[in-house]
Amino acid sequence: MKKVTSFGVAMTFVGSMIGAGFASGQELLQFFGGFGLHGFAGIFVSAALYAIYGALIMLLARRMQTDNYNLLIVPGGNRLLLDIVDVFMAFLLFGMFAIMIAGAGSLLDAQFGLTPLLGGVIMVVLSILTVYWGSDSLIASFNIVVPLMTVAALAVSIAAILRAPVVAFSDPTGAIQPNSMVGNWFLSALLFVFYSTLGGVGALPPLALKMKNDRGAALAPVLSAAILGLFAAVVYIAVISHAGTVAGADMPMLSLASEVSPAVGIVYVLVLFAAIYTTAVGALFGIKARVDTIGRLSASRKNMVIIAVAVVALLSTQIGFVNLVSFLYSLYGYMGILIFLGMLVNYNPGKARESRAGKGMILSRGAAAGARGAFRPARPCGCHLSPYAPRSFSKSIFRPPLHRAQRNAPVFPVQLPCLLWDG
Asked: What is the CATH number of the domain that holds 114?
């Protein structure tokens, strides 16, 4: 199996989150623009949460040895909950894909006069082609698009900041109102992280299994969080400094780019389209990963399912880009909090797992490996990582009870620094 690098996974994580709303500045205005200086602080809280959440996804996928995201979310592998989460996550990924299609249509309509439907068709075709080429093509596209997109957005933001009459860290005009579905800046930061990482929940687990070790798996989200934090801070300062002119714009960053120069505006349209593309591909790749687990479907029928999902998403974009962003993203944030809590509980190998194993419940493929004795020795760094972490898996073997030392092992936030240190 071909290994992937921390940089490649970091670019995938960034690319799956920087979409139409993020790179356009619309999300930052809605979630942080109305809270003054507290909104700026919320961006740094979001960056820290990106690192923690991303590392949790990667390490949990490696611990359980599964790329099926619903197994990562449901503690104990309860079959009813697995079915509910599976439908829930499919709906979330479908909604993200639809929003990106709507964003592409809105962007090409505003800049080139193309109908929104035609712009959406272009995005659907590009996304399907990329997903059919597999995860290697996904990483390759992100490795090219994400650095280019980040540099262009930062360049436009810095130019806009230099042209601003006053550099501001909060809205000096009062024209920007906070999102009606959030109550304060901290809750807004939580919702911002937990909805924007939903694409990564589907795209990261298959890549985590291709990482060489746990240190690389934990390092990739930390790197991506640093990129996202810097990107968000600079873009936020740029749009807030021009709050009077961009408050009513669908895509504030595009307005700033056009003010710098018409040519810069055209270049930024292409970059923004690439940002939409990366997020659309990440969402569709997550949907495909779930469809691939349906064993009763042939390969050709699975392909037809993916195409059908893309067509339905295209038709649903008639609601409009701005309406989808303002309502669905906030709703997804609340749902994303539940997903994060499920993963956090699932990461802890405590008493509940022993109880389930004693009842004979079939767990994940990674847990099945534990029953076969494929254990790793504990790390010497003092953080007591589980020596029962599996190296391989079999199809259906029960997990034996854990030793008392394992039930008392510290959980994820304590283990992460040691993973980064000793690999």
From this structure: 1.10.4160.10
